[in-house]
Q: What sequence folds into this?
């Protein structure tokens, strides 16, 4: 998060972005621990922004039930979560389903919003909500 | 036409005007007249028209329902943070900010 990213040259000559080092991680965590984030809550959830450009968004997913069969899997209709604050680049998204360990969520994040759907190995008619989280950067 | 707003903290702005089934979003005119009852535009098609257009559907009763991204600043009023649906008349549409 702090300083400039390191670029390496791969065997094809293409530039590669070096993976974050432990020092990078310590720096980011230190920035989070030592600085109170700016918090914004709106109808889409809550956004936490740190001065170093780190942004975390949280929100609630709609109730879904995996009732549509795709091969050996069952899926819910895709729903969309608009982040409460804009990201500068596509964030990483994760989430949890409240009430079961027998399902999981797949994500398709973009800069603006997140498409997501619950999946399971069996037909499940009970709708369950989820908690969603996206981590990325914003333009300070 | 019912307009729903989806708020997002961001630095740009939204301007709107309406003329029947035509909505002008930040200067881009979009005609929803061809959208048939009971159909919904795919989200990638919406985004192709305007990054502020999140959803567009016409209900089985023929009502056009649009969802727009609503940009707001850091210290926005409640009306922008938790916006209510509106049913605007023709002309410029007042946007919560």
A:
């Amino acid at each position: 998060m702090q300083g400039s990213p390191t670029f390496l040259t791969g065997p094809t000559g293409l530039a590669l972005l070096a993976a974050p080092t432990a020092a990078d991680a310590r720096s980011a965590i230190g920035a989070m621990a030592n600085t109170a984030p700016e918090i914004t809550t709106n109808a889409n959830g809550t956004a936490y922004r740190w001065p170093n450009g780190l942004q975390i968004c949280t929100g609630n997913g709609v109730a879904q039930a995996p009732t549509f069969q795709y091969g050996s899997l069952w899926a819910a209709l895709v729903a969309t979560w608009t982040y409460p604050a804009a990201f500068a680049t596509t964030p990483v998204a994760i989430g949890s389903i409240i009430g079961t360990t027998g399902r999981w969520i797949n994500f398709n994040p973009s800069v603006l919003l997140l498409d997501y759907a619950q999946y399971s190995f069996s037909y499940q008619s009970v709708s369950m909500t989820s908690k969603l989280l996206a981590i990325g950067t914003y333009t300070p | 036409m019912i307009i729903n707003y989806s708020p997002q903290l961001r630095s740009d702005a939204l301007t709107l005007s309406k003329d029947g089934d035509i909505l002008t979003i930040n200067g881009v005119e979009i005609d929803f007249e061809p959208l048939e009852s009971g159909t919904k535009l795919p989200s990638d098609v919406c985004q192709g028209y305007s990054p502020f257009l999140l959803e567009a559907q016409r209900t089985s009763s023929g009502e056009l329902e649009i969802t727009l991204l609503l940009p707001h600043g850091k210290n926005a009023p409640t009306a922008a943070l938790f916006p209510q649906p509106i049913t605007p008349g023709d002309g410029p549409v007042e946007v919560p900010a």
The two ends of chain B are 21 Å apart (CA to CA).
